[in-house]
Specification:
single chain; Nucleotidyltransferase, domain 5; disordered C terminus
Length: about 400
Amino acid sequence: MLAGVDEVVRYTFRLRPGATAEAALLADWGWCRWLWNEAVHQCRTGRRPTFGKLSKLLTEARARSSWLRDGSQVAQQQTLRTYALALQHSFRVKGRGRPRVKRLKDALPSLEYTTRGFSIRERRLRLPGGVSIPVVWSRELPSDPTSVRVYQDCLGHWYASFVVRRDTAPAPDVEGAIGVDWGVTTTATTTDPAYDLPYLGHRKRCAAELAKLQRRMARRRRVKGAPPSSGYLRAKRQAAKVAKKAARQNIHDARVWAKKVVDDHATIAVEDFKPKFLARSRMARKAADAAIGAAKRELVDRGLRAGRRVVLVPPAFTTMTCSQCGTRAKDRLGLGVRVFRCDTCGYTAGRDRNAARTILATAERGRAGADDVRHAITSFREVGEVRSEPEIPRLPAVGKR
């Protein structure tokens, strides 16, 4: 048995703010959004503001502007801290864009408070300005929260996400390894068919209803510059509700599947697949319905929490390489070719099944001391510790001399 670990997690609860409390939250969000946009402007003028510089600018701005002093200073400081962290992350990670301006019509409200800015009394969330909001306590908090994020989703529902510490249940000692290859026809193909994640098509089932609501939105859309009608807003909300239901179903299925995989395997080799490019292809709709990113995130997060060995393997040449002898095919396999055949050893298997076994073989080479495996922590910053990422060389072409 592994010893229990004290970890930092988020507990999210639904909020039921009244009209007065909601107006106060939206007012605070307006001030914080203005500060965020001002910080973006500072970066566009050639400066690289740090949190310390932004804090000084905030102090000067609150001294000059009485309307800015009406907002919560804690929420405003946390907004600038979030911006500074996002800016630093954009410089460290290749391909990560700079923080953008938050527009009023498409940016959802999000406010963060530390212990100086909120409290929980009489099972209600107390915020600066005398704001008191009832909380739907679906479960008890394991410890006193250190911070809270209050945000609104696309349906207009408010939530509070508390940061707390809890003791994790010890994970059982298990043996065995599994390789995971991502796809569209089957969302996750593993080395063991019993752990495959099939394509469930939640968005496909509600596509007709969603299209009907989107046509209704198009009919009720007013000319550019005119305020939207109540009928348009009602249709928009109904469409968002249908889309969010499908997204929640995908997340639920991914969590159930990830728990099953993590509970039964000590080593999990995952294809480091980036589904972003599929959004520009003819498979964009089905790829979005498969929700590969959500399944991958759940699997890696649960594996690391349970203390499993999680390895991300680059997807290059995994489909072309024979998992039996390691020989790489000379030509790429088209998407229509669903069976892999090795010309060297005669091994035949499903295309995705062979790729999953190749991914597992690449990860298992690290046990023998090969410095060719990079751990998944570096790709998921919220997990915590950052480790080095040695580059993974290709499998040797056995049989070719």
